[in-house]
């Protein structure tokens, strides 16, 4: 990480490529540690899924005791909320461990998980607030698009087109209207570009919403979201480029994993004797195992990228004299 020509190991604000490479190196150097945390985090997500499958299987086979559902369903919802909270807390622990390495203040896995677990419900608040923000932005975007299309539709005489009695005549008149088709095509292009720009910008601004909560003292869910907004100010498009590069790397790796999974599943199905379903069930099991491992594999990848990004943003905006190990 630190250059050999820099004996003190001081790191200046990172370039776009360096943020990704630092995250990847952190991941590779601490693969066993981070994967251990990621596997446990993913198991927390599987617990409510397995539980609801057992509940459904029980009532499907017994077909009785339905009165217990009034107790079982609320209990399962509490379990779901807790398990999702544990997943978010353990995921954030990876970012905390990575940031500790960047600042030469490493912690043990137990210490990091203890800190993030103590803020488990605040991670829920952070997730809820960001979800509400994105929901509000998307709703406003859809309303804006609807208004713009209505205006454009009326401007090219769309209302007169709709006055035709027969639906076939409506489509025929629309198809023969170059102005309408041109406006519609350009409008769709503008909508797509606007959607990517708006969603990308907001994604960048809240890309590290949970990281301050995992690292900084005197922090809660709302303040962590605000901290992300503060640190990413004037850096949204640079962050978007970092996330895009990381997404492309993840896409290529996921594609390779999917190809391997499909080949293995295809071979198992192909060699299956007629009327025998054991290998078919095995191929499904293999697919689920690969999906589980893929989820766990990419969790530390994104968390180390976020830790490197958080470090970079703090060093740019607050001038942190952080050090990286060589």
UniProtKB/TrEMBL annotation:
<protein>
    <submittedName>
        <fullName>Glycerophosphoryl diester phosphodiesterase membrane domain-containing protein</fullName>
    </submittedName>
</protein>
<keyword id="KW-1133">Transmembrane helix</keyword>
<feature type="domain" description="Glycerophosphoryl diester phosphodiesterase membrane">
    <location>
        <begin position="186"/>
        <end position="299"/>
    </location>
</feature>
<feature type="transmembrane region" description="Helical">
    <location>
        <begin position="278"/>
        <end position="302"/>
    </location>
</feature>
<keyword id="KW-0472">Membrane</keyword>
<dbReference type="InterPro" id="IPR018476">
    <property type="entry name" value="GlyceroP-diester-Pdiesterase_M"/>
</dbReference>
<feature type="transmembrane region" description="Helical">
    <location>
        <begin position="180"/>
        <end position="202"/>
    </location>
</feature>
<feature type="transmembrane region" description="Helical">
    <location>
        <begin position="65"/>
        <end position="84"/>
    </location>
</feature>
<feature type="transmembrane region" description="Helical">
    <location>
        <begin position="34"/>
        <end position="59"/>
    </location>
</feature>
<dbReference type="Pfam" id="PF10110">
    <property type="entry name" value="GPDPase_memb"/>
</dbReference>
<feature type="transmembrane region" description="Helical">
    <location>
        <begin position="120"/>
        <end position="153"/>
    </location>
</feature>
<feature type="transmembrane region" description="Helical">
    <location>
        <begin position="239"/>
        <end position="272"/>
    </location>
</feature>
<keyword id="KW-0812">Transmembrane</keyword>
